[in-house]
Design goal:
Chain A is mainly alpha-helical and 427 residues long. Chain A is built from 20 helices and five strands. Chain A has a three-stranded mixed β-sheet with strand order 1-3-2. In chain A, a hairpin with a 4-residue loop joins β2 (151-154) and β3 (159-163). Chain A is globular. Chain A starts with a helix and ends with a helix. With 191 residues, chain B is mainly beta. Chain B contains two helices and 13 strands; from the N terminus they run βββββββαβββββαβ. Chain B has helices spanning 100-108, 173-185; strands spanning 2-3, 31-33, 36-42, 48-53, 57-63, 66-73, 83-90, 113-114, 118-122, 125-136, 146-157, 160-169, 188-189. In chain B, the strands form two sheets. In chain B, strands 1, 5, 6, 7, 8, 9, 10, 11 and 12 form a nine-stranded mixed β-sheet that branches. A four-stranded antiparallel β-sheet of chain B has the order 2-3-4-13, covered by helices on one side. In chain B, β3 and β4 form a beta hairpin. The radius of gyration of chain B is 16 Å and the shape is globular. Mean pLDDT of chain B is 81; it is low at 1-29. The chains are: A mainly alpha (427), B mainly beta (191).
């Protein structure tokens, strides 16, 4: 129902224009899949803008009153309270359902911290999540089905979620080949897998080692959640619940800064091939990489939007809340509390837009520029190191060719000479 | 040398930004390419103007490397929203790339199967261009959903160049290539 509401709000935003253009009609078509049936049928029947507005308003009123009526005054008072930055903050008494899940989650959290602490930039990522006592306060980690996703940060539970299938793959590939099928069968239920991780910290550590870049990405979202109040306002219902593309680009960039740090300090670092490909793409052209990221989210995630679009929907929600009729003291109190929360959230969204611009214009851009200047040499050293340990001559040859290409790109003559010397010896 | 072919391209007079003007039913769609209506678009800082597909979603904002525009479409059919055409400028705050050769050389370092850097002729003008295929992954994983065909044309201007890139599912990229070609043909760098 939240997705329907968001889609109706996006529709209503488009329909608020005096005249609709071709792009508006196209955008309405794109929303159809998430609209209530009657509205979707009206879109198909190419009903007039006025008819669509009427239908959308009726459904919005119905859905909004569901959300409004489902919140008690006590919940509204909580939602109206200011959101405080820093620290893990108050959390609902989820996300762990049982003791085994808590142990597994704490083990994954601890091993993630151990893994990231081995690297200088990893320690920067961890330090962003320090509690008031100055010690790391990572979010809880839960294992569940993500339907094709690998991991995500759930801002409602303020927890990191790891996909059950990905975790199971990590566990079984650590086992001897002859034992894998039986182990996979034994851990086919979520609880069995959770129990296994709870009992075996080495399995958690292995997962963290293989997926450290992924963990950096999700922990960056956890940091964003503590740094800015926007996700908490979304969780409280004071802002539309969207996936912010600006946040995603920041998380992906941070992940690549971590990979760079690892490669720079130890060329022998094992990096997931897809993550390494992404790191390479970003360093070839940051502009082109950002365009690809925007396509990746826009084409596959209906709730992915930029801050500007979320702000436009919020403005309409506020207008609707202000216009809401009240006749009892309770209704007036409810309206006042809703307006308090939503107005504050709207201001925070505006502040986020300015803050993201400032962050990108200065520190993050500076770090990316520095990484760009070093990445070719880092990749050359990495491939050279990998070539020294390649299992066969063909792979050695492929890796040395890559090393030579990146060494040429780096302009480092000494590095190029070393790579060519190694190439000569391998013939 | 390559020549791109158009479908029914009519040149439009220079003019308005993409947003609708009050005195017309729509920023008038004067040009058509591959069945897609085109309007004249004016970049917000006056850096360039071009044709843009009237029925596609447009993003125009400040990215980390500078301002950009990106259009997503078409908005109907099985490949809805999977095609994008982006315009970036080099060099910029992050990418100190000054020539098309440098950009192409950079892409050659990746695992993509790159074409050669060629000269392409569009509407009587010659531009450096290249293309490759790249996998499309979902936002939260590395599964390959489908392969994209990516075509890039570069327009040199004042110590740098504009990069216009068309990215679409490899099976159907030819359907929207004329839209890309029309954007390139009508592209006017200004400052």
């Amino acid at each position: 129902m939240a997705t329907q509401r968001l889609s109706l709000e996006r529709l209503r935003l488009i329909l608020s224009k005096d005249e609709l253009g071709g792009s508006d009609t196209a955008a309405i078509q794109a929303l159809k899949g998430n609209l209530p049936e009657a509205v979707a049928k009206a879109v198909d029947a190419r009903k007039s803008a006025a008819d669509l507005r009427e239908l959308a308003d009726q459904d919005l009123a119905r859905i909004s009153s569901y959300f409004d009526a489902s919140r008690t005054l006590s919940e509204r008072r909580d939602a109206a309270q200011p959101v405080r930055a820093d620290g893990p903050g108050r959390r609902v008494p989820l996300p762990y359902f049982n003791e085994s899940e808590r142990l597994a989650g704490e083990s994954l959290s601890a091993t993630a911290a151990d893994r990231l602490a081995k690297d200088a930039f990893g320690r920067t990522v961890l330090a962003r999540l320090n509690g008031k006592d100055g010690k790391p306060a990572l979010p809880p980690v839960v294992i569940q089905d993500l339907d094709g996703g690998v991991a995500s940060y759930d801002y409602r539970r303020r927890a990191l979620v790891v996909d059950r299938t990905v975790m199971l793959m990590s566990v079984t590939e650590d086992a001897a080949p002859k034992d894998r099928a039986a182990l996979s069968k034994a851990l086919s239920s979520r609880q069995a897998l959770v129990d296994y991780i709870a009992r075996r910290p080495e399995a958690a550590a292995s997962f963290a080692a293989k997926n450290d870049a992924l963990l950096v990405h999700e922990l960056t979202h956890a940091w964003q959640d503590r740094r800015d109040p926007v996700m908490r306002e979304m969780a409280r219902g004071n802002l539309p619940q969207a996936m912010l593309i600006e946040y995603e680009i920041e998380a992906w960039t941070t992940k690549n800064l971590y990979i760079h740090s690892r490669l720079k300090h130890d060329p022998r670092s094992q990096v997931n091939i897809f993550e390494l490909e992404d790191y390479t793409n970003m360093n070839v052209s940051y502009s082109a990489w950002e365009s690809q990221m925007r396509t990746r989210y826009s084409s596959e995630m209906p709730d992915a939007m930029d801050i500007k679009t979320v702000a436009a929907i919020q403005a309409r929600r506020l207008a609707a809340a202000r216009a809401r009729a009240t006749s009892t003291t309770e209704e007036r109190t409810a309206k006042a509390l809703d307006l308090l929360g939503m107005t504050r959230a709207e201001r925070e969204l505006r502040e986020l837009s300015l803050a993201q611009k400032a962050r990108h214009e200065s520190p993050l851009t500076g770090m990316v520029a520095a990484m760009r200047a070093e990445s070719a040499a880092a990749l050359a050293e990495h491939y050279l190191s990998a070539a020294l340990h390649a299992p066969n001559p063909i792979e050695t040859s492929v890796l040395l060719r890559k090393a030579e290409d990146f060494a040429l790109e780096s302009g480092d003559k000494e590095l190029l000479a070393r790579v060519r010397a190694r190439k000569g010896r391998s013939r | 040398m390559k020549r791109f072919l158009f479908a029914a391209l009519l040149l439009a007079p220079a003019g308005c930004r993409r947003e609708e003007t009050a005195d017309t039913e729509l920023a008038p769609a004067k040009a058509v390419a591959s069945g897609q209506k085109l309007i004249t678009f004016e970049e917000k800082t006056g850096a360039f103007s071009c044709f843009a597909p009237a029925d596609w979603k447009m993003l125009e904002a400040d990215g980390s490397a500078g301002s950009f525009i990106q259009v997503f479409g078409p908005m109907e059919g099985p490949d809805r929203g999977k095609t994008s055409i982006s315009v970036n400028r080099y060099p910029n705050v992050v990418d100190k790339i000054r020539t098309p050769q440098e950009l192409w050389s950079g892409f050659k370092l990746t695992d993509k199967k790159m074409s050669a850097l060629e000269k392409t002729t569009i509407a009587g003008r010659e531009f450096p261009a290249f293309h490759y295929e790249a996998p499309q992954h979902p936002p939260n994983g590395w599964k390959v959903l489908y392969m994209n065909r990516v075509d890039t044309v570069m327009i040199p201007f004042e110590g740098g160049f504009f990069e216009i890139t068309h990215s679409a599912p490899a099976d159907s990229y030819k359907d929207t290539l004329p839209v890309f070609e029309a954007m390139v043909a009508g592209f006017q760098p200004k400052r």
